[in-house]
């Protein structure tokens, strides 16, 4: 049907007016909903993204935990991404974020816009993702009842020149030994369910051969290796070597405990006290290793690097805490967009991922 010019013009005007009214209402609604407390308006943002998950109110008994030792009150967006990704990929697990209650150093009490966005994201994780909880505690108390307690109480651990790192290394092992579960560094992006991981750690390829990282560790409570590891850590501790309670201590302890001089990947090692331990290949957690950290931040992504992540449970993101810019087309941004969409979009729109 053809409409005479005048009618057509009026119809277009009406449509235009209607569109204008809808737009105005929309802007108003947006203004009203963005009250100071909910600046990023998590609920609305969440609806725009995919519904989080169809939780049927069940937990599968899997504990996943993170540790933040600095004493800051909120996570950075990049840390929040780790928590969100773990919760999304493991909707039936319980995700716990242990945050230090007592800051040990002077942290800048600096209410920048970025902090505000970060705190809004942290609040969202706590309030809206059902399977995430945050515990604010004196985290060193978790060392009590472990071999590391004396080590701390007699002042040795306090001699560390990198106390945040060393405390985190110690506390994760104590918590694993006491509670079992999966410890993850906050700079991981989780892509798959982790419930098949048990008594396992991962190797990296592009570093020293047989090198085990401690950024991802899955153990059942009371696993004898963890007790052995804590005792070894005390001997391995060097106050001015930030790695001394981390990867090198874990690697040495496994070689000792399992009586080996190599650590073959994809292998179940039979170790002391009738226990066993599985060595994950680099693809599992550290497909892109520290030697190639640049890959995460380059504006162009190589398909070969995507393919490396195909068989990964998660990807540890090296240099995540360094503040390096994350271009929107980089591998890091693409992973964040896919696996922690709420955090990424909220922080990106405030230019603070
Ligand atoms: C923390 O900051 C205050 C004031 O800026 C200063 O007096 C104090 O010495 C600092 N403490 C440490 C442990 O750096
Ligand atoms: C606040 O943060 C900015 C940027 O992060 C920094 O340059 C500045 O020194 C900080 N101020 C204080 C008082 O910490
Ligand atoms: C170690 O340092 C913490 C915090 O600085 C302090 O509370 C604690 O008393 C120290 N412990 C020992 C044994 O020196
Ligand atoms: C994990 O390994 C322990 C042995 O250390 C075993 O008792 C437990 O059943 C295993 N858990 C799962 C979920 O396979
Ligand atoms: C290890 O297992 C063997 C047989 O399965 C058993 O005879 C032995 O007592 C166990 N040793 C320990 C330390 O549990």
Description:
Residues 1-29 form the signal peptide. The structure is a single chain. With 353 residues, the chain is an alpha/beta fold. It has a single domain (46-349), classed as Spore Coat Polysaccharide Biosynthesis Protein SpsA, Chain A. The chain is 40% helix and 15% strand. It has twelve helices and ten strands. The protein has helices at 5-33, 42-48, 77-89, 113-128, 148-153, 163-179, 224-236, 247-257, 282-285, 303-308, 331-339, 341-349, and strands at residues 63-68, 94-100, 132-137, 181-184, 188-190, 200-204, 211-219, 267-270, 276-280, 314-316. The strands form two sheets. It has an eight-stranded mixed β-sheet with strand order 3-2-1-4-7-6-9-8, with helices on both faces. A two-stranded antiparallel ribbon has the order 5-10. Helix 3 packs parallel to helix 4, helix 4 runs antiparallel to helix 12 and helix 11 (331-339) crosses helix 12 (341-349). The protein is globular. Residues 198-199, 220, 223 line the site of one 2-acetamido-2-deoxy-beta-D-glucopyranose.
List descriptors.
single chain; 353 residues; alpha/beta; Spore Coat Polysaccharide Biosynthesis Protein SpsA, Chain A; eight-stranded mixed beta sheet; two-stranded antiparallel sheet; 10 strands; globular; binds 2-acetamido-2-deoxy-beta-D-glucopyranose; golgi apparatus
Q: Which secondary structure elements does this structure contain, and how are they paired or packed?
A:
Layout: H1 5-33, H2 42-48, E1 63-68, H3 77-89, E2 94-100, H4 113-128, E3 132-137, H5 148-153, H6 163-179, E4 181-184, E5 188-190, E6 200-204, E7 211-219, H7 224-236, H8 247-257, E8 267-270, E9 276-280, H9 282-285, H10 303-308, E10 314-316, H11 331-339, H12 341-349
Parallel strand pairs: 1-2, 1-4, 2-3, 6-9
Antiparallel strand pairs: 4-7, 5-10, 6-7, 8-9
